[in-house]
Amino acid sequence: MNRLFGSVRSRATLGATLVVAVALVTAGFAVVLALRSNLTAEAGTRAERSARAVAFDLAARTAYEDLTGLDGDDGPVQILDEDGGLVAASEDLERISGTATDEVKPRPAPPAPGDDDDDSDDSGDSGDSDDPDDFDHAEDSGGSGEDLAPGEIAGETTFGNGSATIDGDTEDYRFAAVDVQTHDRGRLTVYAGAPLAAEHSAVDTAQTAMLIGLPLLLGVVAGVTWMVTGRALRPVEGIRREMAAITASEDLARRVPEPGTHDEIARLARTTNETLTALEASVERQRRFVADASHELRSPIASLRTQLEVAAAHPELLDLDGAVEDTVRLQHLAADLLLLARLDAGERPADSLVDLAALAREETAGRSGVVVRTEPAQVTGSRGQLGRLLTNLLDNARRHARETVTVTVRREGAWAVLGVADDGEGVPEADRERIFERFVRLDAARSRDDGGAGLGLAIARDVAVRHGGTLTAGAAPTGGALFELRLPLVEEG
Fold this sequence. Notes:
The strands form three sheets. A six-stranded antiparallel beta sheet has the order 2-1-6-5-4-3. The protein has a five-stranded mixed beta sheet with strand order 8-10-11-13-12. By secondary structure, the chain is α+β, with helices and mostly antiparallel strands. The longest helix has 53 residues.
């Protein structure tokens, strides 16, 4: 299971399917609720229409037995008096719920006034049933609470749900209640119901359609997402296979395929190839470095061994000065290689304050033919590494200068600039970048046989870069070479 859902394709398919499922379920519930609400409202409108039709007949003094709405064709009807008693109901009504009473048989009609008292005429107008003042005390029996005049129908309608059984058929109904103030029967409340069968049928049909259609639609979404993500990730799989082949063969000259699109995967492929190019160049540079280092180490070691072997056989022929010179040369080369190894490993320089002016005076002390012109300029970094940088520049300038080497330190905006210039032949413009490569010595330098291994300027530039600066070669005003070191200036606080 973990392996199945460990791929981007599987997770994308699952995520898309879940999102669509949540959206469809939410939309389905909303549709069902809206459908149920609309159909229920429609049933309520039909029920209100039936109730008001009966109320209109009652306001027109139509007798209960003559009411057309009690035939049960349009749904169950109940008529309640102001005391909540049932005075009329639909024919064949067997059971009802959801109204103010569950009675289905009307109460017996009360005796007419005057039937039990022969002296009713002496009691004034108390027996006059046509007097509307007899119904001013009518109470709400389930409809609205409006005060109504005789013959007036309430404008407010109340609704409720229930069920009823008519002639053996039981259904759910939406009931509407309307009050009417009659002339001769007081305040009555008419309950009329409209069947909810259409609402139930429509809702059931919608739910069934969703239960059937939802899994099918989710299957389609999952299948389409699976195919689309597979097609989109196919170049990624090609990149992965090629990278695995490169790793297995260790052939950094190979490149991953780049799709012809302009999307993220194409950019990933291009970035991967750029990384491989940089890695190939780095490995090739490292191989050349090892080969050149081996070559440079071989010469002093072979010379020293030869001298020692000769001295062992013929002590009187021992060239002690030559042995010491080769040993020193070997020591310097080993120190240079060690420093380059530390720089390549990303060793961070210390964050101490270094005054370039003081450093320049210190490093040039005791050197002949060196002119120093400085102003205070503080930077942060390793005093030892910056001293090694300046020493390498001075040694290089001294080897090529005719008479004078000039060292300057100045402030230039946000930079501290250290310059080392000589009055020699200078560096050809075409070689001004190449001289910073490792083990590179120009023909003129090689012919001098001064023991240099071609690492001094490479070390100087690496130290400059590690300190957040630059080291460039140019032409000096005197016609020789000018090396300028630029480092971020630290303002004195």
